[in-house]
User: What shape does this take?
Amino acid sequence: QVNLVESGGGLVQTGESQRLSCVASGRTFRDNAMGWFRQAPGKERELVAAISSTQSTYYSDSVKGRFIISRDFAENAVYLQMNSLKPEDTAIYYCVARRRWGTIAIITSDYDYWGQGTQVTVSS
Assistant: This one.
């Protein structure tokens, strides 16, 4: 059974930083893209950042320049460093991974594995 377990969410103030972690178990994702989606109340899920097996990255326009995605192949993990947080970053953040090897995808249905989500709340 494949599991993605997120940690690191919580309450922060505007302008502060927070780091999310996701550790996968049940299979290796060395050859697969991983990433982070988020969903705010009343909004659709959106891809925040993704990283390929060759460590190419994608960022949504809303977080570009503030968030950094990275991965550790030995730990089978992916991380999201969030800087200069804003109230509009408040959402549940989900760790995701693709079953198909290789490239980054940007739509929800292209990701086969999802974590349970971790709440990030940014107060003004």
Q: What stands out?
A: The chain has a mean pLDDT of 96.
